[in-house]
Design a protein that fits this description.
Layout (H helix, E strand, L loop, with lengths): L2 H36 L15 H11 L10 H17 L7 E6 L2 E5 L7 H22 L3 H32 L4 H6 L12 H14 L11 H4 L9 H26 L8 H36 L7 H32 L1
Antiparallel strand pairs: 1-2
Helix pairs in contact: 1-2, 1-9, 1-10, 2-9, 3-4, 3-9, 4-5, 5-7, 5-11, 7-9, 7-11, 9-10
Amino acid sequence: MDSGFIIEKFLLVAVIFGISLLIAMYSTYAERKVAAYLQDRLGPDRAGPFGILQPLADGVKMFMKEEIIPTTSNRWLFVVGPGLALLCACIGTAVIPWGSPMVIGDKVVPLQVSDINVGVLYIFGVVSLGVYGVMIGGWASNNKYSLLSAIRAASQNISYEIAMGLSIIALLLITNTLSLKEIVDQQHGWRWNVLYQPLGFIIFMVCSFAETNRAPFDLPECETELIGGYHTEYSSMKLGFYLFAEYINMFVSSAVMAALYFGGYNYPGMDSMAEILGPTWAPLFGTGIFFLKIFAFIFFFMWVRWTIPRFRYDQLMNLGWKGLIPLAIANIIVTGIVIAVIEKF
């Protein structure tokens, strides 16, 4: 294999990993600032100008805190749990196309780690694996509240993965591909899939809230019932790994929604912009547009958290099984009928 290809991919992986951690770190700052604005407060304002260094202070605090492992816990699984959660959160970025291929000299550099032809299935596989980190950590803690939280997280993820998968099937009927790169390229300009699949997008977005354990679906971390949830017994950087994993999952979910339904790096007038900026800078401009869409979704995640109260667990299950799944099946049927009629006439 060409050594240049390996170096290119290694650098791309390093950049994406660094950006993911940076966004996760400053999402904690943004969450506090959004909450403060909605509640008419200031939020963090001590560490640096406007509190901009607060995430760094929190990171140092996590590193410096004493690491406590309960004596009655399963030590090895207790350590593996948060690491697995963070790993599964990070590897989801591998198949996301961050921009169109850019030209550097006489070399074409794709802004995607791997364009596999089953990218959508890869994303679902990573999402399915992520819950194991929560389950292992909750069980290994040997704490009844942590175990109950882990069981809640597993049943919640299983329930909403079904509706999420069904919502994607209707989209695949339109795109005829499982490659995220091809799905994004089909949305050139204004041909965004959300215009053709508005119900599918709403179902997918609601399921994303449940899959990332974000309010109003944050039952695994219900403080009033479960103390701190599955990470009750965790401290130091192990707790930090769980918190980072949640924010990286939110970032990846926002990127997937932007790619599948809102055109990814496509935007109106991109052909004209490509002529102005050239083949090197135009892809980076598209990447910037993609990240603006991602940040809009992240803000929406935070806005919902401080706006809508938490569901009861029976309400959460009823919505998943009796609400979203029938809607997703109906959406598949209607989409299939419309496609069949269009193809016939």
